[in-house]
Known about the structure:
The structure is a single chain. Among the domains are: 3-57, no CATH class; 122-237, Aspartate Aminotransferase, domain 2. Helix content is 40%, strand content 10%. The chain contains 10 helices and 7 strands. It has a 4-stranded parallel beta sheet, with helices on both faces. α5 (118-132) runs parallel beside α6 (146-155). It is globular and about 65 Å long.
Amino acid sequence: xxxxxxxxxxxxxxxxxxxxxxxxxxxxxxxxxxxxxxxxxxxxxxxxxxxxxxxxxxxxxxxxxxxxxxxxxxxxxxxxxxxxxxxxxxxxxxxxxxxxxxxxxxxxxxxxxxxxxxxxxxxxxxxxxxxxxxxxxxxxxxxxxxxxxxxxxxxxxxxxxxxxxxxxxxxxxxxxxxxxxxxxxxxxxxxxxxxxxxxxxxxxxxxxxxxxxxxxxxxxxxxxxxxxxxxxxxxxxxxxxxxxxxxxxxxxxxxxxxxxxxxxxxxxxxxxxxxxxxxxxxxxxxxxxxxxxxxxxx
Length: 298
């Protein structure tokens, strides 16, 4: 068995199919200029090019906000860098406990659970909940995010895919199943790769009609769409038309990107000129020379 040749052939197939991934190296000299970044192409590392990163999930540019940066620095000074271990063995930092309590209160739920990313939260919640339901059938929208598809796959449950946002097709599939069979409808509120908004009210009505719990991905669409932060479903009830685009692809993207890029640069220049120097976060300074106690469970 020629293992090296096997791997080389696999990589060659990926390249021939156009699926070989290349990660462009970028950097940002100033986080507050987001989404403007410096791209350093291979062989031209000493001649960086200014680019606009439209595929980031920092939708509201909060990663470069002075208050966010200052809070991050304070948290690292207080708790150190890294989690120090999984919460199963090392416990949970109190700020995470407070965050979960606030999220639960925000959505009117008895409890909340924070994951390390939206991707893993979708995979874990779908696969776990569906696997706990005997003989569960998952009905998945055709354009669901990869994290949801992986959750469906790892649940080991039977699945059926309904045409994107086609509630008539969804009802056809639901109607063929006994009412008492466990079912889960999985969809997104705002499809991050396409920009489509789901007919949430109609899907929820079908879920109630056919006794099928529904689980949908809200992700970052939550905060921009309602003053309370409760998201798209609240905005739709009030007749609001959301304007967030998430990772959606838009027509005439080049012209739109150029216009927004110009506004971003002008806004960045104005904000930097008017921002007092005291807004920059200060380096960590420990109040006591004593070293912090070692973390347990590591």
